[in-house]
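Box S1 | Example of a co-folding query
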Amino acid sequence: MPALIELSGIERIFQLGDSEVHALRHLELSIAAGEYVAVMGPSGSGKSTLLNLLGLLDHPNIGIYRLEGRDVTTLSPEEQARVRSERIGFVFQSFHLVPRLTAAENIALPMTLAGIEPAQRAKRVEQALKDYGLADRASHRPDQLSGGQRQRVAIARATIMQPAMILADEPTGNLDRATGEEVMRLLEELNQRGVTLIVVTHDTTLGARARRQLLMEDGELRHDRTIKKKSNA
Ligand code: ADP
Ligand code: MG
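Box S1 (continued) | Returned holo structure for magnesium ion
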């Protein structure tokens, strides 16, 4: 079986006026389906750039990204959008919910965009609201929700299309410790059910929960460490 994710020879260079920022340098990375990976490293080390590439929100200048064995760097924007919609769920630090839509409408959005019929949509949203403890918040707008509730809406939205992987960029960055723990637990439950989980964090305590830890520095992958499973795990 091919790796879920395979990056080879990836370079990402941002042009800023006359100067260049080398955000990712000769990156080689392979991630198998079902892994739980934490991406750590100081601010500016390329963590978000890496996640955006993995999520097809950005393109490398050089190199190949294979997703489920297929080179996705050469797909048309429409084909990439389709892969994104069907295979990838995003969770961001600042939630990225649509302010004027209710919790239920935010969760339904990926299905609306994918053209799933209203009855099916309503059924799945109802289940997701239940699953994430949001049943009594269905018609609240984001500004009427707590941070933890907003992130739960975001996770429900990210998973409503049953993606192969969840990409989370500092998902607990705007939450207090206890709420952050709860959000991590929800993401980890998804991983236990087989969803590949890639979490960017600069919190080493949170990062240590992942089986595999990547350390980024100056756009380079400095360490790639997999913790052996305990025998009873
Ligand atoms: P991290 O998420 O680890 O804090 P980023 O991936 O956001 O780091 O950024 C890596 C480097 O690339 C930084 O120097 C940042 O300023 C630069 N960078 C990121 N995105 C852009 C962009 N769109 N345009 C120009 N420079 C960028
Ligand atoms: Mg970042």
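Residues 47-48 surround magnesium ion (ligand 2) (CB under 6 Å). The helical segments are 47-54, 77-87, 103-113, 118-131, 147-159, 177-192, 204-207.
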